[in-house]
Amino acid sequence: MDNRAGEMETFIKVVEHGSFSMAGRDLHMSPSAVSKLVTRIEDRLETRLLVRSTRKLQLTPEGELYMHRARTILDQIDETDRLVAGGGQVTPRGKLSINASIAFSEVFIVPFLPEFMQQYPDIELDLTQTDGIIDLLEERSDVAIRSGGLPDSSLMARKLLETKRMIVASPTYLAEHGTPQTPMDLVDHNCLRFNFLKGRNFWPFTDPETGRSFDQIIKGEFLGNSGPLVKAICIAGVGIARIGAFHVRDEIERGELVEILPDWTNTDMETVHAVWAGHEHLATRIRAFIDFLAENMKSADQPD
Predict the structure, then answer these.
(1) Looking at residue 196, what DSSP letter applies?
(2) Distance between CA atoms of 134 and 140, rounded to whole angstroms?
(3) Whole-angstrom Cα distance, residue 122 to residue 74?
(4) CB-CB contact of 187 with 217 (8 Å)
């Protein structure tokens, strides 16, 4: 009988290491044996899973599907063993790789990590903060926390939070440059933007009188790669920014930032999702984290 689980484990190691030789070293196999095993899988499936080149290995769409399902199956096998050995109960364990936007992580993840780690001591957390768009497989992440649309239909997602986006500026900037009274006034201001939103040179608004939604072209002399960076530049008085309400509520309360055009942004909402690749079945460590996060979102003190 074929050792399908062993084949899956070998394939995953090849993808994780990006080479046959490094995977072989990890599995105590020769590079040729690893290569032959992957070829055997491809021959059985009658499809190419990896594109081999002299520089790197790249997954085909079929390879990505096989990778996702293989991880799920191996997680299920591991959980089944632990379920039987544990008398019907599974304790979440193992390495959990999380990739989260910086602002969300600072507000909703980092403060609660001690409680989560105390509740699940057998989970090894690996948290990466970045605001850029990522490939879950390439980044070796189990789950990502992202705001906005979900263009990749192959990803599974769970809604965590719906937050308002605010247009804000520092009192210093407004005193020097004046306060915009309508979105059209923004053409005369330095609007701070994010460099990972390619081509996003507009902000959405809704006319409070007519209810008509429209995009206002904006321009500016600064682009940043993270929410905290753009917020810091905004507080410094450089320009006007569009930032999630949860990220600027403390600065607004302290008077470091002022919300502008509030009547025009009442419908400017953005949804935050937990996103993962592959199957509906989640490893217990991933489900435990997402459930924990969702529970915290219910009690989150969101500004109006």
Answers:
(1) T
(2) 10
(3) 18
(4) yes
**Residue among 178, 167, 243 at smallest CA distance from 205:** 167
Length of the chain: 304
Q: Sort residue 298 into left (φ over 0), alpha (ψ -120 to 50) or beta.
A: alpha
Query: How do strand 269-277 and strand 155-169 relate by DSSP bridges?
Result: antiparallel
Please check the confidence at residue 238 and state whether its pLDDT lies above 60: yes
Bridging pattern class, strands 269-277 and 193-194: unpaired
pLDDT tens-digit readout, 285-302: 888 899 998 888 776 544
Question: From CA 95, how far away is CA 101, in angstroms rounded?
Answer: 20
Q: Mean of the pLDDT values across residues 210-218?
A: 93
Q: What are 274's strand-pairing partners?
A: 145, 158
What is the separation, in whole angstroms, between the first and last Cα of the chain?
A: 61
Give the span between the Cα atoms of 206 and 32, in whole angstroms. 62
Show the tokens assigned to 225.
């790669």
Distance CA 140, CA 59 (A): 13
Backbone angles phi, psi at 215, to 5 degrees: -105, 130
> Are the C-beta atoms of 249 and 165 separated by less than 8 Å?
no
Indicate the helix (H) or strand (E) that contains 200: none
d(CA 149, CA 211) in angstroms, rounded, equals 23
Written as one letter, the residue type at 35 is S
pTM exceeds cut of 0.85: no
Q: What is the pLDDT of residues 124-136, one digit of tens each?
A: 999 988 876 655 5
Q: Show Cβ contacts of residue 201 under 8 Å, excluding neighbours closer than 6 positions.
A: 193, 217, 218, 219
Determine how many CB atoms are found less than 10 A away from the CB of residue 158: 15
* Domains along the sequence of the chain with CATH: 4-85 (1.10.10.10), 94-160+272-298 (3.40.190.10), 163-269 (3.40.190.10)
